[in-house]
């Protein structure tokens, strides 16, 4: 039985709705704007599309799943690769469209054939090392942002001030995550950004480090339409193999992440979301959110663990609250002053929170291996994990022609799936999936 304060379809009063929705919006805010900041996309568009994608998700899942969709960290490196090898951010958006379409295809297959096949295709021994690659592959970016300042003609020099600010930001995020309870513990990234920003202001005032420039904030209008990226208007729509191979294989990880979130959510609210409204619907909602987001310049979307954390703490599962958070995010994206203020966040502050975030991503892969009791005395498992890690972190590249190549994380994910099928021996069962299914059956009996 659910011990919810407000169940999924319960509607809170007006004052409650505003307060609870803002709480969810702030929980996702830091992570959602961090992804576009690191990839050269618009934070305003990321915020706008997170709200739009969440509303689409709620509609597709028939208002049965209280999940919020924010910017996906799994696509940071692929977006950077697509932007660098193509025509800028527009190229990454073409890849994101393809990702949304793949979600739709997988959703259709699950609707027709069930979901067990996808769990066999994406076992923990493949998915966990790829998740580790995502975090570890971005480690250099996080540390570089925390330690190096750009001066003169794009020359980068070590900066003690940057490093101190980055460490302060990291320390604040860790303190919030580990030593506080309640809502604060679910927003370590946002609070870390705020704390690092205040430390930067103090550094500017006392040591004249010039970390923050408010000129653009002063010039910004209170109301400003976000900078959309429209295919055929702001960039040429050219689908290339390079773009598809940089972005699409990451679906291997994000679909697994999606399934995991649905299982956790189901456990929290005492429902079987894999069965009702169905994994096909939740994946379709996620995919449509990503597709619509990419059509106007937003990063790919994923359900957010931060907001699941808020559900756990508050026991308020109402989809009205999730929808309210989405509406607030949409309105906030049109605040020129706020978005200009976001643009003034110093690089070392972003680097400080990135160290924690990317480390958590890598550790999540390690945790998946532990929770599923992957046996590394089994040479089969050892080989699969080893190959994925080295190919992914090492940035391996398989070039067929000058314009057709697979590299890095995408190549590692594809080879991991192939090795899982090719190598002799019994594939490791998904014990976590089995455990969750058993708990759901017991819950439905109750």
TrEMBL record:
Q: What is its main location?
A: membrane
Q: How does it sit in the membrane?
A: Multi-pass membrane protein
| Any one cellular-component term (Gene Ontology) | plasma membrane
Q: What Gene Ontology molecular-function terms does this entry list?
A: xanthine transmembrane transporter activity
Keyword Cytoplasm attached: no
Name assigned to this protein: Uracil permease
The domain of life for this entry's organism is Bacteria
Which keywords does this chain's UniProt record carry?
Answer: Membrane, Transmembrane, Transmembrane helix, Transport
Q: Is this entry keyworded Membrane?
A: yes
Family label: Belongs to the nucleobase:cation symporter-2 (NCS2) (TC 2.A.40) family.
- Classification via InterPro entries: NCS2, Xan_ur_permease
Question: Where does this polypeptide localize?
Answer: Membrane
Chain ranges passing through the membrane: 33-60, 67-86, 92-111, 123-148, 160-180, 187-207, 237-255, 310-334, 349-370, 382-400, 406-423
């Amino acid at each position: 039985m659910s011990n919810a304060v407000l169940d999924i379809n319960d509607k809170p009063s007006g004052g409650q709705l505003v307060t609870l929705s803002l709480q969810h919006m702030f929980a996702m805010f830091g992570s959602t704007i961090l992804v576009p900041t690191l990839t050269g996309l618009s934070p305003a568009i990321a915020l706008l599309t997170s709200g739009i994608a969440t509303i689409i998700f709620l509609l597709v899942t028939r208002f049965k799943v209280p999940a919020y969709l924010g910017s996906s960290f799994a696509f940071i490196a692929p977006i950077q690769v697509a932007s660098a090898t193509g025509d800028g951010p527009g190229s990454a958006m073409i890849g994101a469209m393809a990702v949304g379409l793949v979600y739709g295809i997988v959703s259709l297959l699950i609707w027709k054939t069930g979901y067990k096949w996808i769990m066999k295709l994406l076992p923990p021994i493949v998915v966990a090392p790829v998740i580790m690659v995502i975090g570890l592959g971005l480690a250099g970016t996080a540390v570089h942002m925390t330690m190096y300042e750009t001066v003169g003609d794009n020359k980068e020099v070590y900066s003690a001030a940057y490093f101190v600010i980055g460490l302060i930001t990291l320390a604040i995020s860790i303190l919030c995550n580990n030593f506080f309870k309640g809502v604060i513990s679910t927003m370590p990234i946002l609070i870390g950004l705020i704390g690092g920003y205040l430390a930067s202001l103090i550094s500017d005032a006392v040591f004249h480090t010039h970390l923050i420039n408010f000129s653009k904030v002063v010039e910004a209008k209170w109301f400003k339409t976000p900078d959309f990226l429209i295919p055929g208007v702001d960039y040429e729509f050219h689908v290339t193999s390079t773009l598809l191979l940089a972005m699409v294989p990451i679906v291997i990880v994000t679909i697994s992440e999606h399934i995991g979130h649905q299982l956790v959510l189901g456990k929290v609210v005492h429902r079987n979301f894999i069965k009702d409204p169905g994994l096909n619907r939740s994946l379709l909602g996620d995919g449509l959110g990503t597709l619509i987001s990419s059509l106007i310049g937003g990063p790919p979307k994923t359900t957010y663990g931060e907001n699941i954390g808020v559900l756990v703490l508050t026991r308020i599962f109402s989809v009205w609250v999730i929808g309210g958070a989405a509406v607030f995010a949409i309105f906030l994206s049109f605040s020129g002053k706020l978005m200009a203020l976001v643009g003034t966040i110093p690089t070392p502050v972003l680097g400080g929170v990135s160290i924690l975030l990317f480390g958590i991503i890598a550790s999540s892969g390690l945790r998946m291996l532990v929770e599923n009791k992957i046996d590394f005395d089994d040479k089969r498992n050892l080989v699969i994990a080893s190959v994925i890690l080295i190919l992914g972190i090492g940035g391996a590249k398989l070039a067929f022609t000058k314009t057709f190549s697979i590299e890095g994380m995408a190549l590692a994910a594809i080879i991991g799936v192939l090795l899982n099928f090719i190598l002799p021996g019994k594939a490791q069962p998904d014990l976590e999936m089995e455990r969750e299914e058993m708990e759901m059956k017991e819950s439905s009996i109750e």
